[in-house]
Amino acid sequence: MIGKEIQPFVAQAFKPTAQGKGEFVEVTDGDVRGNWAVFFFYPADFTFVCPTELEDLAEQYDTLKGMGVEVYSVSTDTHFSHKAWHETSEKIAKIKFPMLGDQNHTIANNFGVLREGQGLADRATFVVDPDGVIQVMEITSEGVGRNATELVRKIKAAQYVRANPGQVCPAKWEEGDDTLAPSLDLVGKI
Amino acid sequence: MIGKEIQPFVAQAFKPTAQGKGEFVEVTDGDVRGNWAVFFFYPADFTFVCPTELEDLAEQYDTLKGMGVEVYSVSTDTHFSHKAWHETSEKIAKIKFPMLGDQNHTIANNFGVLREGQGLADRATFVVDPDGVIQVMEITSEGVGRNATELVRKIKAAQYVRANPGQVCPAKWEEGDDTLAPSLDLVGKI
Amino acid sequence: MIGKEIQPFVAQAFKPTAQGKGEFVEVTDGDVRGNWAVFFFYPADFTFVCPTELEDLAEQYDTLKGMGVEVYSVSTDTHFSHKAWHETSEKIAKIKFPMLGDQNHTIANNFGVLREGQGLADRATFVVDPDGVIQVMEITSEGVGRNATELVRKIKAAQYVRANPGQVCPAKWEEGDDTLAPSLDLVGKI
Amino acid sequence: MIGKEIQPFVAQAFKPTAQGKGEFVEVTDGDVRGNWAVFFFYPADFTFVCPTELEDLAEQYDTLKGMGVEVYSVSTDTHFSHKAWHETSEKIAKIKFPMLGDQNHTIANNFGVLREGQGLADRATFVVDPDGVIQVMEITSEGVGRNATELVRKIKAAQYVRANPGQVCPAKWEEGDDTLAPSLDLVGKI
Amino acid sequence: MIGKEIQPFVAQAFKPTAQGKGEFVEVTDGDVRGNWAVFFFYPADFTFVCPTELEDLAEQYDTLKGMGVEVYSVSTDTHFSHKAWHETSEKIAKIKFPMLGDQNHTIANNFGVLREGQGLADRATFVVDPDGVIQVMEITSEGVGRNATELVRKIKAAQYVRANPGQVCPAKWEEGDDTLAPSLDLVGKI
Amino acid sequence: MIGKEIQPFVAQAFKPTAQGKGEFVEVTDGDVRGNWAVFFFYPADFTFVCPTELEDLAEQYDTLKGMGVEVYSVSTDTHFSHKAWHETSEKIAKIKFPMLGDQNHTIANNFGVLREGQGLADRATFVVDPDGVIQVMEITSEGVGRNATELVRKIKAAQYVRANPGQVCPAKWEEGDDTLAPSLDLVGKI
Amino acid sequence: MIGKEIQPFVAQAFKPTAQGKGEFVEVTDGDVRGNWAVFFFYPADFTFVCPTELEDLAEQYDTLKGMGVEVYSVSTDTHFSHKAWHETSEKIAKIKFPMLGDQNHTIANNFGVLREGQGLADRATFVVDPDGVIQVMEITSEGVGRNATELVRKIKAAQYVRANPGQVCPAKWEEGDDTLAPSLDLVGKI
Amino acid sequence: MIGKEIQPFVAQAFKPTAQGKGEFVEVTDGDVRGNWAVFFFYPADFTFVCPTELEDLAEQYDTLKGMGVEVYSVSTDTHFSHKAWHETSEKIAKIKFPMLGDQNHTIANNFGVLREGQGLADRATFVVDPDGVIQVMEITSEGVGRNATELVRKIKAAQYVRANPGQVCPAKWEEGDDTLAPSLDLVGKI
Amino acid sequence: MIGKEIQPFVAQAFKPTAQGKGEFVEVTDGDVRGNWAVFFFYPADFTFVCPTELEDLAEQYDTLKGMGVEVYSVSTDTHFSHKAWHETSEKIAKIKFPMLGDQNHTIANNFGVLREGQGLADRATFVVDPDGVIQVMEITSEGVGRNATELVRKIKAAQYVRANPGQVCPAKWEEGDDTLAPSLDLVGKI
Amino acid sequence: MIGKEIQPFVAQAFKPTAQGKGEFVEVTDGDVRGNWAVFFFYPADFTFVCPTELEDLAEQYDTLKGMGVEVYSVSTDTHFSHKAWHETSEKIAKIKFPMLGDQNHTIANNFGVLREGQGLADRATFVVDPDGVIQVMEITSEGVGRNATELVRKIKAAQYVRANPGQVCPAKWEEGDDTLAPSLDLVGKI
User: Fold this and answer.
1) DSSP code of A33?
2) Mean pLDDT per 10-residue section of chain D, whose length is 190 residues
3) Do B147 and A172 touch (CB under 8 A)?
4) Is the pair A, E in contact (3+ CB pairs within 8 Å)?
5) Which residues 56-85 of D have a C-beta within 8 angstroms of C?
6) What CATH code would you report for A10-146?
7) E58 near E65, Cβ under 8 Å?
8) Which of J117, I1, J101, J102 is nearest to B12 (CA)?
9) Do I184 and B22 touch (CB under 8 A)?
10) Sign of CA dihedral E99, E105, E111, E112
11) Is it the case that residue I61 has pLDDT exceeding 80?
12) Which of C30, G132, I124, J71 has the fewest CB within 10 Å, making it most exposed?
């Protein structure tokens, strides 16, 4: 998937303003291009691991917005269901990013994360650059929670590499750490 | 990929004992089953991000062995090349896990991470459980380094879930944190 | 569809006992056979016409149970979503029949009522006899509500015909009205 | 079928003026468009349930005409046979709408109601709007009579929804009853 | 078609005893074998040339029965329609042979006489011998009446040839006329 | 075949003037159009039933010419063979119409009367109208002679129907007999 | 064709005894095997070059019989036609070998000599040995007569070679001439 | 093959002037057209029957040239081999016509005389007219020599027929013999 | 080709004993196995570079026989042609190994060296080990002569490697030179 | 392969200037055309026979450059690996020609030398002329070293033939030796 462009989609989303408040908006692949984006898939509204992960992500949303990154959560529930969940769950109520309804399975299929025979999406994260190209992906099995802090670290590295052609970020790189400039002289020297 | 079983392969590997020392061994999918395993793909020997990531992983190798996890690094170089790199690079010299030669592209294709038209593997990590089933995966684009500490965290969560059926690990779960036991009463309550 | 047998399916359902209370059960085509059944499809939880129709049906549920008829409501939402809706909607809280989660679209496809490109089911009703054979069907477009009283009338006629081979029920037949016994002498005489 | 446009057909019909009197006319899909229409399929002339249903419908014909709805009865008999039946049956003699001859099975196939291996149509009703789009459908098995009053109720609801965009009719809606205007605030509140 | 065996069919027939009286019987290809048979196709009940032809045939029915020949009239109308026609038409009321309902088009297709795009049979006659093999066929276009006397003449010739192997009947042969015994000496001599 | 146009062919024919005298001419489907025509197939020159039938037809040739009908006899023999037969057989010597050589089997195949595996034509007659459309056909099995008088009767009826649109000829119709004008009022009245 | 075995066929033949006398016999490929045979194809009975060639061959028939060779003439005419020709032609009357009727084109097709689009055989001769294998073939275009004397010369050479393995017959070899015994020493010496 | 045009080919040939002397020339199908030609195939240089046949043909070469006929001998040997054979064999040294090298098998395949699985041509002769159309062909099995005198006779007949349209040559025709002019009056008279 | 087994073939060969003397023998792939073999392809007998190469090889034949190696020269000429060439060429007369006739192109195709569209083999050499496996191959374009001394050197190396598993021969290795025993310690050390 | 043009490729190469020094350059098929070129394939960097062959070739590089010949070594290792090998091996350090990285297998596949199932190239040499056409090829099995001196000899012969059309080089030809001018008079004389 890495290096592939995202495919076309049209989805109805619930974009919250306050708990259970907000509006229904249409989101397409066209809206995604031009900015960094995170697609954050999870299996189902009203379930168990998902809200902790979504809350974790909601808490990083201001940071991500500050980095120029939009976040889209996606499940195969409808936008009606997302709205209802937002209204009734304290954790989910923290969300301010658009929650996409993918009951037609288009987006989950586009990213290759629809669980065969279940009608539910994997617990998968994709980082998409402003050209619509996937730069980072991660999937964990049922029951293993993700880590929004590590996600932020990886997006920062991807942004740094895009902004500084010719530089690469070593393992565990954090903002401010040294980077490397590949050259023939470095071959076999690291 | 999550939930799929690994496919058959046969590879020559360099298994180091000391810098540039060690032996050439054959590794197959049969050797992998029965224990937890990490497949750690990288593009090419003698390049730039890879050695920092491999060093980072080498430093966690004792921890991982203690958790019952074997590590396999994989690139499309030969085992001869791996041996030569191990001998000449200080960082790589720290590696004690088997370095698989995939110059025939079988393993990279099995895991779907061969970069089309380049003959190189993605920067991809797969965690495989003792049944040969992929539980966690992660890919970053060229230039974005991975984080072995986060990898250890996720493997611990996956091991916990396997050991404790009926429990799930929330976001950012670390060993010792609370877990959740899904039930009808919890529906919509988290 | 009339005269066709229902096809295999496996679904998770929420079977309510009190508002937002109940249990998650698995329902299959095997559970359906042996009794009369109504499959009552609707587009989505938390929407507008549907709850009035479901309430209308809920009010006939005791009558239908008395006639030996089980009711299954079906949408492409999950059983988690059904449970949440049951908990928060007064009208839905009246439901006591199993609410099937069809997020994998199997049942809607089996009955040919998945709206192409939307991932939602039609507003469709099917009456299935104890042999699993569809006897009556009805679909209305978005915004046109169904009528549970008329549904009860048609099920009674279908049950009468099954119980009295050789008899047929004329238009608008209500329980107790005369029926007809087709014979060569009646040809062209009605 | 709901939401699909009707397909092309050409048929010979008997259009009665008095018992066994009238004319033979050609009816095509082009004649149908521009007005609301009911296609009322039945298995065969000179049989048993059909005449009661056709009489029931004939009695609503003035009402339906007043609502701007044309009615077409259809069986796989010829228009010659329709004319002969109209002449000899008291119930059928009440019909004033065109009786289409579909001995070539085109129309029954178009609507998907030809009984496989029998050469007879199902007992099926379709309501078609002025754009030629099917809005309501209903099929009952052999021996179960339909109800023209309920048909009128559903057409009224469909006409109301078409005339009042943004309004929907709840279950059992009768002319004059309240309707609903869907909005985000109503989500999960009905 | 000549020399081909008839294909399987199952049909409902009206077998008259008196005007509009009689019974509904099932007729299959199995009933046909063992005796000589005539299949007499015509386009539609209640039309114009057909009744004169059917009356003509009805008048030869005793003769044909005396020769061991059963007659089957066939149109794409139902057996219900045949019964109604028998009741209301003086000419048709003379018929005593089974009138087959072929509304499913099976028999007309078997004999290759279904008019494409019309759902009606050709005006076709087939003589079938006791082995189910077609010996004589004749088709006339719309509006050209057949001749039952000539049909009887041809069946007599066919029966003579079957009964007298080695003999052939010259043109216009009538019962009692001379026949020919082919031999090498006759080659070129007739 | 009825209602189908004849297909293209080119054939060498023997057109007799006196016994064994005449000329070889080419006949094509183009020569046939514009007049009524009879195609009279038979199995083989120098055989047994054929000459009696051909003689019978030869005796009606003046009548047919007077009606504007051309006659073509056809077998899979060559025109050389036809000429030789005409010279040596008294019956055949009466023929004055073109005898077509179809040793390439084109014409017999066009009319669907080539006996599979024998290379011989059926004993088949086709009446073709001036538009090249087949109006009447008849086939008898080996050994059953045809009747040219009945053929004349049928051609007269076909010509009458073509000349008098809206009129049809009842069974056994002879020139001068009454015909019928179909109308709605006659439906079911004959 | 040389070196290929003849293919199966069944044909009706006229086997003459005196002018226009004889019998009709069935000849198959099985009758051919076990003896030397000549298949002598020609276009059509009653034509021009053919009878001179057939007469030429008829005059060599005793010689050929004496050499153990059977002769079969073949055209696409019937055996009836052959009989009639034998009766009326003085040259053909000399024939005593079987004249095969190939109106079904099987034999001409087997030997690859059916003229495309004509239904006539080439002017072709085939010599077949007792194993059914073709040893000599010759075809001349329309209008060029063959030479039975040369045919006899070639059959004698072929019989000599079969009888004397290791010997070959030089050009223009006549019975009694020297033959050659190929050997390595003769290579390049002739 | 008779009546077919020759197909394209390009070949290297040895065209002798004196024993083992001459030149290498390219010969194509284009060179053949415009004159009569003989293609004289034989299996292999330096073998046994072939040189006697080639010598026989060489002795007729002046006669054939006088008749306007070019001769081409063809085997699957190279032109180098032909030159070497011409130099070392007394019989072959008499040849003055072009000897074509067909080591690529094109010409032998074009004429259908390549022996399957052997890479050698049949002992085959083809006479081609100035339009490139094959008029006469002959093949003899291994060991049976051909006869150049009979070949000359047949070419003369073919040339006579081409020069005198409407005339045909009877069997064994020699230059100066009578020919026949086919006409209807001759049908069955020869 | 290297590492592939030779494919089946059957060929006629000239095996010389003295100039132009010898015998014709059949050689198959079965004869090749069990010993080392050289297949020495060349374009054509009686040409230019080939004889110098064949003479060069003939002079090494005793050496090669001493090493247990059989030699087979192959061209698309026949064995007759090989014999004739051996008789007339001084250089070729030195040959004592079998000269295979491949006029059917089987062997040249097996080894992939038939020049497309020419019917001639490449100037190609193959060394085959006793298991029938190709160990060395070499092809030069038209006009570039090969070198039998270098061929002998390579065969010796191949024989050494087969005889001494675990040893390899460095560049330009001559009998008696040092060889190398690959080991992990040598990796990257040469 | 001989006579075929090279196919398109794009490769990264290490072009050394001093031990482990140099630059990374892109090499394409376009760079190859216009000069003579050698493609020198070998299995893998850091192995055993390869370095002796590459050293042998490196020692001939000045000679080859003087002849206008560029050399490209190719293995399925990356250019990074080539650089590392050059730095650490004394023999390889002598190389001054571009070392192509073919980890994507394109070039090895183009020349047909990728070992199936191993991902390594054969030990193969190709000489390509300035038109990009392969003139000489050679492959040896694992363990058999090549000989750069013989390679130089063959390139000189190929260059001589290209420079002197009409001349060919006999076996073992060395610069300055006599060449041959093929002519008809030489046929069979060498």
Assistant:
1) T
2) 94 94 96 97 90 95 97 97 95 96 97 94 97 97 92 96 90 90 81
3) yes
4) no
5) 56-57, 85
6) 3.40.30.10
7) no
8) J117
9) yes
10) positive
11) yes
12) C30
Q: Which chains touch C (3 or more CB pairs under 8 A)?
A: A, B, D, E
Round to whole Å and give the CA distance between J56 and J49.
11
Question: How long a stretch of residues is chain H?
Answer: 190
Question: Residue H70: its pLDDT value, please?
Answer: 98
Terminal C-alpha separation, chain F: 28
β pairing state of H99-101 and H10-16: antiparallel
* Superfamily classification of domain J10-164: Glutaredoxin (3.40.30.10)
Please report the DSSP string for E134-179 in residue order: EEEEEEE-TT----HHHHHHHHHHHHHHHHSTT-BB-TT--TTS--
Residues for chain E: how many in total? 190
pLDDT at res. F49:
78
Residue C190 reports pLDDT greater than 80? no
Alpha-carbon Rg for chain I, nearest whole angstrom, is 17
CA of I145: which chain J residue's CA is closest? J171
Determine the length of chain A.
190
Distance CA H111, CA H100 (A): 14
The amino acid at residue E69 is V
Q: Per the structure block, which two tokens stand in for G94?
A: 């000399």
Q: Shortest CA distance to G178 belongs to which of H42, G164, H55, G189? A: G164
DSSP per-residue letters across H33-74? TTSEEEEEE-S-TT-SHHHHHHHHHHHTHHHHHHTTEEEEEE
How many beta-carbon pairs below 8 A join chains F and H? 11
Superfamily of domain E10-163: Glutaredoxin (3.40.30.10)
Whether residue H187 and residue F23 make contact (CB cut-off 8 A), yes or no, is no
I149 touches chain J (CB under 8 A): yes
Q: Which amino acid is at G99?
A: M
Cα–Cα distance list, A11 to A19, C105, F41, F184 (Å): 22, 18, 71, 59
Reply yes or no on whether the pLDDT at I184 is more than 90: no
CA atoms of C107 and D3, how far apart (whole Å): 20
Q: Token digits for J84? A: 């590392």
Calpha distance H32→D98 (Å, rounded): 78
Sequence ranges of the domains in chain B? 10-146
pLDDT at B54 over 90: yes
Interface test with I, best of B15, B23, B46, B83 (most I CBs within 10 A): B83
The domain over range C10-145 is classified in CATH as 3.40.50.300: no
Tokens of E182: 């082919």
Mean pLDDT, each 10-residue run in order, chain J (190 residues): 94 94 96 97 90 95 97 97 95 96 97 94 97 97 92 96 90 90 82
Nearest to E102 by CA among C185, J94, H171, D77: D77
Residue with tokens 């902790």: A52
Q: Name the superfamily (CATH) of residues D10-186.
A: Glutaredoxin (3.40.30.10)
Condensed to tens digits (0 to 9), the pLDDT of residues I128-155 reads 999 999 999 999 998 899 999 999 999 9
CB-CB contact of D60 with D95 (8 Å): no
Angstrom distances, CA of residue D3 to CA of A78, C50, D6, D131: 21, 18, 10, 10
Query: What is the secondary structure of chain E as a DSSP string?
Result: -TTPBPPP-EEEEEEESSTT-EEEEEEEHHHHTTSEEEEEE-S-TT-SHHHHHHHHHHHTHHHHHHTTEEEEEEESS-HHHHHHHHHH-TTGGG--S-EEE-TT-HHHHHTT-BPTTT--B-EEEEEE-TTSBEEEEEEE-TT----HHHHHHHHHHHHHHHHSTT-BB-TT--TTS--B---GGGTTT-
Place of tokens 């020069």: H163
Query: Phi and psi for I108 in degrees, rounded to 5?
Result: -60, -40
G50 is catalytic: yes
Q: What parts of chain F have a pLDDT lower than 70?
A: none
